[in-house]
Structure formats: C-alpha cells, structure tokens
Amino acid sequence: MRTLLITGPGGNGRTTLAAATALAAAREGTRTLVLTADRTDTLGTVLGTPTGSAPREAAPGLTAWRPDPAAGFRDDLAAFQERAANLLDLLGAGPLDPDEVTPLPGAEELALLRALRDAALAEQHELLVVDLPPTPQALALLALPEQLRRYLRRLLPTERQAARALRPVLGRLAGVPMPAERLYDTAARWDVELAAVEAVLADRGTRVRLVAEPGPAGADGVRTALIGLALRALPVDCLLANRVLPEDPAGSWLAGPVAQQRKTLEDWHGTYGARTIAHLGRDPRGTDDLAALAPPGVPERTPAVEWPVTDRLAEDGVLVWHIPLPGARREELDLVRRGDELVVTVGPFRRIAPLPSALRRCSVAGAGLSDGELRVRFTPDPDLWPRTP
Q1: Beta strands 32-36 and 127-131: pairing type?
Q2: pLDDT at 141 > cutoff 80
Q3: In angstroms, what CA-CA distances link 366 with 321, 335, 349, 362, 363?
Q4: For residues 312 and 375, what is the distance between their CA atoms, to the nearest angstrom?
C-alpha cells in the first residue's frame, strides 16, 4: 500500500487538496482511504459527505475516516487504571469514571497514528491519503513513534524483564508494590504498536506532499517544513502551490498579490519543481470542485532519503556521514554525540539518531554544512577500530 502524508502551513488548503488527491486517485480506479484528525468535519464539508468515527464511502472507490479521539482516550485511560490499580490504591487515588473523561490535547494526533497503523495492517486499500495537522504539529506527530519507543527502552529496558521471577520477593522485602507483570506486557505491546507506525513511515511507498500558498509566509513555512522532514528522512513527493491567482491587468487591486505570488512561484519552480493549483474564485465544495483542482497523481515510488557514509580513510583518514538538510543555516544547527547516538538540532527540530555501526567505533572529528548537506567527519578510535595486519 502507498501512503501519502499531506501537510503545510495552517489555513493553506491542505485538507481540500488531501480530499482532491484522494478523489482523483479513486476515479482512476485506485481503492483509496482518506484520513483526518480534525475535530471539526472540514474533510466532510469539502467532500460533501459527513465523516465520522467509522469509515464510510464518500465516492465510488473512496472511503473517508475521521477517528474519534474521545473513545480511544477513554479506553486507554480505563486500561491504564486497571494496570496501575495497586499503585493507585497505595497513593489513595480515586479512579476516574469513563463518563467524566474528556480527551486531553494531543488525543487527536494519537488517534490518527493508531488509525494509520490499523489502515496499513488491514490492507484493504491501495492508497492511504492522510490529512495531517499543520506543519509544526505534523512534524511533532511524525517524530512521536521513534521518541516514545526510545523512552520505553530507557524506562523499561528489555534486560530488566529477565528478573520478573524476583519481583514478588523484592516486593515483600521492600514493602512496596513492584511493577506488575502486566506493566511489562503493556510496554511490550506499546513497542510493537509504535514499531508498526514507524514501519509505515519508513516504507518506500510513503511520501509527504506539502501544500502552501505562494508568498512570504508560505516560503518561510515551506523552508521550515523541508528541514523538519529531512531530519526525519521523509521523502517529499512534491510541493503544491495552492490558490494561485490568475494574471490580472495592471491597476487592479489584485496586481500586488499577483506580483507577490509570481515572485515566490519563480523560486519554488526553480528550486522544488512546484506544481500550481489555480484559485477557483470560491471555497471548493463537493466532488465537482475537487475535480476542477486537478492535483497531480501519486507516483508508485519516490526515491528514499538516504544518510550515506562514505569511506575516505585512505585519502583523509576519516569516515563522513552525509545528512541532507535543505534550507538549513549554520547558526541554527547544533550537534552533540551521546554514546552511540548523534543529537542533531536544526532550529526548532531535534532528532536523536543512532550511529551506523562503523561510526560507533569512531570519534567525531568535526562537521560542516554545505549545499544543504551536513557532513559529519569521524576518525577511527584506535582502541575500538579493527587493526589491519
């Protein structure tokens, strides 16, 4: 199954183009599912068919789904209270009734991740189009599975689970409840579920499509989005310049906005090969308007974002790790090595990336940013590097 993640600055029409892209694919004969996490039914308004917690047909070959975050949040909280009953009793805490629970901020995003995983595992569709939140929230959401799995491994390391048989004895000696078997079972289940989401994001059939209105704000939003996506090693399918105004005679009040758009479009076409989506002169509503937008098709595959390591030991005595970061600036870049991981910070984004096996036996010798690529140099550690005869 192919997965297309659509995001962009807020209010730039990403939900509309997600619906238009999904509809176009369905009309070409591709079984398509479009997902959204929006609390308000913007997707249903655009499609002309209400969406809800159960998948429903929005057009021939097209299914729309807006998962209910409240239901999932209540179920998860009830399960947590059951697993932590001993600890809650020790603290004198009173359990919450499911009827009084309302979802916390972020519940929509978690519901979307779960739906993304379920849709991929079900394999009932050939194309999954995901209407992600605006770019900053979308990038945080895409980073969540990797971050949560890392936290789980630190808090509940696998090697500690070998001592399960000792927990009842330790509990009696310490006089306090020890972590129950279900806690470790739950952590293992969460790890499997998060790994399934990570697998969807890392699949060669997954790519991102950016939607932005051409202009100064859109240009800043696109640059920021491309940096964040590159740091997650997510390939960008294309940039859609949305709501492009038609050429207008000089002297009209539209002459200024048109000129501003044209300046940004020249840069986007030359740098990103942007595709333009014409302004319809109204808010698109219904399948006829969506078809008139004519978004580009979804390719079978997009080249993966590679972080290769080149061997320059013979020439310079170093190995070089190449990390693509298009649009990044030196003043917003920071690097820290922590054990077998490299912490890369670019502006508001951070990723803790595991080092390739060869680089774990090396020391960082320096780094440089050139032509949109970060090059980190490593020299072999004599105590760890295999000696040549």
Answers
A1: parallel
A2: yes
A3: 11, 10, 21, 12, 9
A4: 12
Q: In CATH, what class is 2-68+104-293?
A: alpha beta
> Which residues of the chain are in CATH 3.40.50.300 domains?
2-68+104-293
Buried b (16+ CB within 10 A) or exposed e, 210-238: bbbbbbeebbebbbbbbbbbbbbbbbbbb
**Entry pTM:** 0.86
Q: From CA 315, how far away is CA 256, in angstroms rounded?
A: 55
Which of 204, 39, 209, 196 is CA-nearest to residue 114? 196
CB 15 within 8 A of CB 38: yes
Longest Cα–Cα distance of the chain, Å, equals 86
Average pLDDT, integer, range 279-306 = 90
CATH topology of domain 309-380: Immunoglobulin-like (2.60.40)
Instruction: Extract the tokens encoding 278.
Output: 């014409």
CATH 2.60.40.790 domain locations along the chain: 309-380
Query: HSE of 194 in the Cβ direction (CA atoms, 13 Å)?
Result: 19
